[in-house]
């Protein structure tokens, strides 16, 4: 029973022409640029030698040990602090606010923002992210980071930055998988960029951090993750991460939560969509009567695409914060070296109308009970690419490619087979298979025999991966067959 239906490779065609499966063949003779064959094999398959070792692979299915937060309650009172705050902003200004400002207040208001005082991830929260689906996601991102580190020439000091780390699950799996690669982990200083005090506490706990007194004039404390002996620091914004050291940046499902401005075509041209208050104190959408400051970013975005494509649209979403963040990332990589990996759902082109609200894994009206549902929008990968390239001539942008291509080329097939061999029960094997499908599959899993409401839905093609790297470091794995800016 244990091996029943676990022929995982035939489940998907993971673009073998772009994968590194040849590295696992005895006839292989050409490793990826900057990476030795032996090291890459060891990263994924778990083999070891005197210089680079990894323990026998083990399975870790039950993630409950990471965090057991109290269940949060969504129901706001009639005088919700956030609702009163939004009403006061609109009344004070004597007019509506932008969708972007509404979104920012709902998600990150210091007192009542959606992300600030609760844990919203996992089956008990409102949505599940890839790291929560399976340990293999964080492990594959770790493989990518180690490969980039090798291509950078194995620097002895590296800033490993994660934007919006959630519970810290991705970083936990990355460090656990890399813990035997001492040269890599000893070079790291982890920087977590998050504005939520609640999530910072979860990250501190899940990374098994200990605070040590740091001998300095400021009396700062030095925090160490016991998972790999690496120092950990927290910051409210990316700009606060110290510069001057090669930097590897991971942004997984971070860009989709950045506030977007929405524009709608009207007889007088493009009008920004705004949020106003009705007489009954409920919120509603209205159109701006005149151009707004965000029109500057709309013009910039339209410049990056074909006029014929824009003419077909009645609505456009833009994300100025995504453009500005990408510019900062690009300049940092240009000056300090390194690279950034961006994985999110979106499209490689202009985004029309994608803003959505999710509560308890279901879509709800965007203006319904603000602060009780997650707000997110599709990521405009084309805008990210242009923002990076215009910010610096010293960086190259690769992708986007699908999450299925990204994980498949890094060796997730080999990893899941290794884990399956260590399963002790059919249930463990089935959980692995379901997690594998959710990460790399498309649509409903064809092999599922359980309850219909629990059928795994693949996100392998809905999520895209893009890399921004310093030009001096060559082509990053696994984008080797794609030219810069090419899907």
From TrEMBL:
One of its GO terms (cellular component) is mitochondrion. It is an enzyme of class 2 (transferase). One of its GO terms (biological process) is methylation. Arginine methyltransferase involved in the assembly or stability of mitochondrial NADH:ubiquinone oxidoreductase complex (complex I). Acts by mediating symmetric dimethylation of 'Arg-118' of NDUFS2 after it assembles into the complex I, stabilizing the early intermediate complex. It comes from Spinacia oleracea. Belongs to the NDUFAF7 family. This is Protein arginine methyltransferase NDUFAF7. Pfam families: Methyltransf_28. Its main location: mitochondrion. GO terms for molecular function: protein-arginine omega-N symmetric methyltransferase activity. Its EC number is 2.1.1.320. InterPro entries: NDUFAF7 (IPR003788), NDUFAF7_sf (IPR038375), SAM-dependent_MTases_sf (IPR029063). It is found in: Mitochondrion. It comes from the Eukaryota. Keywords: Methyltransferase, Mitochondrion, Transferase, Transit peptide.
């Amino acid at each position: 029973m244990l091996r029943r239906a676990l022929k995982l490779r035939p489940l998907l065609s993971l673009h073998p022409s772009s994968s590194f499966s040849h590295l696992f063949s005895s006839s292989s003779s050409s490793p990826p640029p900057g990476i030795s064959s032996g090291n890459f094999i060891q990263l994924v398959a778990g083999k070891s030698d005197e210089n680079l070792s990894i323990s026998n692979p083990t399975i870790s299915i039950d993630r409950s040990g990471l965090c057991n937060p109290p269940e949060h309650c969504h129901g706001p009172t009639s005088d919700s602090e956030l609702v009163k705050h939004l009403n006061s902003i609109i009344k004070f200004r004597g007019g509506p606010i932008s969708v972007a400002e509404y979104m920012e207040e709902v998600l990150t208001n210091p007192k009542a923002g959606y992300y600030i005082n609760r844990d919203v991830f996992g089956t008990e929260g409102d949505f599940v992210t890839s790291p929560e689906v399976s340990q293999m996601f964080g492990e594959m991102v770790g493989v990518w980071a180690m490969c980039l580190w090798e291509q950078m020439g194995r620097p002895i000091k590296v800033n490993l930055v994660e934007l919006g780390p959630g519970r810290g699950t991705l970083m936990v799996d990355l460090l656990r998988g890399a813990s035997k690669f001492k040269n890599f982990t000893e070079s790291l200083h982890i920087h977590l960029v998050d504005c939520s005090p609640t999530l910072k506490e979860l990250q501190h706990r899940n990374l098994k951090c200990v605070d040590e007194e740091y001998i300095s004039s400021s009396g700062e404390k030095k925090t160490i993750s016991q998972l790999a002996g690496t120092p950990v620091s927290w910051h409210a914004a990316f700009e606060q991460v110290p510069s001057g050291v090669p930097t590897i940046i991971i942004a997984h499902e971070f860009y989709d939560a950045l506030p977007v401005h929405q524009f709608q075509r009207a007889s007088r041209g493009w009008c920004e969509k705004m949020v106003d208050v009705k007489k009954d104190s409920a919120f509603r959408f209205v159109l701006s009567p005149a151009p707004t400051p965000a029109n500057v970013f709309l013009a910039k975005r339209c410049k990056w695409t074909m006029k014929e494509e824009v003419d077909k649209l009645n609505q456009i979403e833009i994300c100025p914060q995504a453009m500005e963040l990408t510019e900062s990332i690009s300049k940092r990589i240009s000056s300090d070296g390194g690279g950034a990996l961006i994985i999110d759902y979106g499209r490689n082109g202009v985004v029309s109308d994608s803003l959505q609200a999710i509560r308890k894994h279901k879509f709800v009206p965007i203006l319904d009970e603000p602060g009780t549902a997650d707000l997110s929008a599709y990521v405009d990968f084309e805008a990210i690419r242009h923002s990076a390239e215009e910010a610096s001539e010293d960086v190259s942008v690769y992708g986007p490619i699908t999450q299925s291509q990204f994980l498949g080329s890094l060796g997730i097939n080999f990893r899941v087979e290794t884990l399956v061999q260590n399963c002790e029960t059919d249930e463990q094997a089935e959980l692995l298979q379901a997690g594998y499908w959710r990460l790399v599959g498309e649509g409903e899993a064809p092999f599922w025999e359980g309850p219909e409401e629990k059928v795994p839905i693949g996100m392998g093609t809905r999520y895209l991966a893009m890399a921004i790297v310093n030009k001096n470091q060559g082509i990053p794995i696994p984008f080797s067959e794609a030219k810069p800016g090419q899907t």
